[in-house]
Design brief:
- This protein has ten helices and no strands.
- It is mainly α and about 260 residues long.
- The protein has a domain of about 170 residues.
- The longest helix is centred in the middle third of the chain and has 32 residues.
């Protein structure tokens, strides 16, 4: 088995394992508790409403499209998939590790697993030039869009996971109220999104952040300062998107369409 075939096979196995473990976390559920039950146990104001987590269905659909596409014989030597290498398999391992750690209430360790997942997705994002390399067809939807959506959600999940772990550990926030810390986190998350919009013009990443922010508005309606701030952040991201697309400044390295084999 040559290296490219091995990489294709490993990516398929990694995603299948991830989907199975995720299914078990909901269906059994693992350790007798679902992710939603755990998330709702503590009053974390950064956590969005439960319906927002349905985005995992979209993420896994896109990732299934990715592993199928990368496994095609015609894509075996595609330089984009070679750049991704085993980073995707690493992200799957981190995802699985996070599920087990979170379900067994190892929240501090789960943060490390989440950071590993975030880091591996960032490596993929940077290595294949999402937002700075123009692509079309299957490469656009099953690779670039798939990883933009995935990274967007894991960005939100990482912030929420850290907040959850700190609260569970009894951290008092240096005496600063949870509402203020949540406002700070919302501003930071929006700032990261603004960077992605301005530097990468990544609409898929931005759409995920908007989806999560609206979910926070819905769930935290009883906490006006948080709900209002989240609503303002939605408007800020939309404004940044509008400005970026209206300006339509050329992206470095985006002059040539890639993924023609798609």
């Amino acid at each position: 088995m040559n290296r490219d075939v091995l990489r294709q096979f490993v990516n398929i196995v990694a995603l299948v394992a991830t989907v199975i473990v995720n299914g078990l976390s909901q269906g059994l559920p693992l350790n007798g508790q679902t992710p939603a039950q755990i998330s709702n146990r503590l009053p974390i104001l950064f956590v969005p409403d439960n319906y927002v987590f349905s985005i995992w269905g979209l993420i896994y659909t896109l990732l299934i499209g990715f592993v199928v596409y990368q496994a095609l014989p015609s894509q075996r030597e595609n330089p984009t998939f070679r750049k991704i290498g085993y980073w995707f398999a690493l992200s799957c391992a981190a995802n699985i590790g996070w599920i087990f750690l979170f379900h067994w209430n190892q929240f501090g360790w789960s943060v490390l697993a989440m950071l590993a997942l975030l880091g591996s997705l960032l490596m993929i994002y940077m290595r294949i030039g999402i937002g700075v390399t123009a692509v079309r067809g299957a490469m656009r939807w099953w690779v670039h869009t798939a990883f933009s959506v995935y990274l967007g959600w894991i960005t939100v999940a990482t912030v929420a996971n850290i907040a959850y772990a700190l609260f569970d550990a009894g951290w008092n926030g240096f005496g600063i109220s949870g509402e203020v810390w949540t406002v700070v986190m919302l501003i930071v998350a929006t700032g990261i999104t603004g960077f992605m919009v301005l530097m990468r013009r990544d609409w898929a990443y931005s759409a995920v952040i908007i989806w999560a922010l609206i979910g926070i508005v819905v769930k935290q309606a009883g906490t006006p300062v948080v709900a209002t701030t989240a609503g303002i952040m939605v408007a800020a991201v939309l404004a940044a998107l509008a400005a970026r697309f209206l300006l339509n400044r050329p992206q470095g390295g985006a002059g040539k369409l890639t993924g023609a084999a798609a």
